Amino acid sequence: MTSAALPLQPTSGNDRFNAEAASWETNPFVHEASKEALKAIMTRFPALTNPPAPDKGLEVLEIGCGTGLLSCLIAPYAKRVVAVDAAPGMIEELEKKLQTAQTPQNILPVAVLLENPEDKHLPPVDESNPDGPRLKFDLIISHLTLHHVSNLRAVLTTMLGCLKHSGSVALTDFEDNGPEAKRFHEKAKMAGVQRPGINAQAIDTLMNEVGFVNVRVERAWSMDKVVEKYDGEFGDAPKGPRQPGQGEIKSFPFLVCTGQKKYCQ
Ligand SMILES: C[S@@+](CC[C@H](N)C(=O)[O-])C[C@H]1O[C@@H](n2cnc3c(N)ncnc32)[C@H](O)[C@@H]1O
């Protein structure tokens, strides 16, 4: 066997998200979750509503943007949102939305599994030097995505490398608060799921180890979700209709994980 580098992410997740892209926004849960994420981010980053100067809005990078639900919500408060997703099908849906007048136009959709802060898919610092160094960001967001990432250390390291000095991350996902957390996903939706949510202590430790400073991991909101009473109750169809009496409602806490890149002179 050759020693070709292993991909950081399995492709099964991409297959699943490409297949689900066109119907992603028919699920009210993902709309509600993005609105809650926006609230959690806005309260922690007042510079979004009060930039240092009118022309000094924040450069925002979203990793795992999907169809751009959160990108579209945060874009009116940002100078620009670079919206990255590893599943090209998700990015195609965002590109379609960008053709409509109601979608903020300061969003740049990018289909890439981002593993390198100098990846040429990211915009350059200087538009007149397209092959030069890549743009660094004031704020990196990532919502409902970390539980799909197999190598969290690698992704956090990439995020740190994509930040300006003193730039911040705000990572939102459901919490792994015990054995019940695995019920967040029904059996037919397990492709690409790497962990049952985010463990607060583990992400805090990892963010510090990777080099973030001022790390804070907080419970920000909770959401009710209809879950299977037992594994496979909803069947194998990707979105099977619920019969009367099927499933039960369970509340899931969500974390917001913030941290900064150290300022270096
Ligand atoms: C559960 S979806 C959430 C999408 C969107 N944030 C939302 O809330 O609607 C997770 C997304 O993360 C993307 N993803 C997973 N790992 C990624 C990575 N390392 N880089 C970029 N995208 C990734 C998947 O392709 C998928 O679209």
Automatic annotation (TrEMBL):
The keyword Transferase applies. InterPro entries: SAM-dependent_MTases_sf (IPR029063). Pfam families: Methyltransf_23. The keyword Metal-binding does not apply. Keywords: Transferase. It comes from the Eukaryota. CDD domains: AdoMet_MTases (cd02440). GO terms for molecular function: transferase activity. Gene3D superfamilies: Vaccinia Virus protein VP39. This is Methyltransferase domain-containing protein. It comes from Capronia epimyces CBS 606.96. The lineage of its organism: Eukaryota, Fungi, Dikarya, Ascomycota, Pezizomycotina.
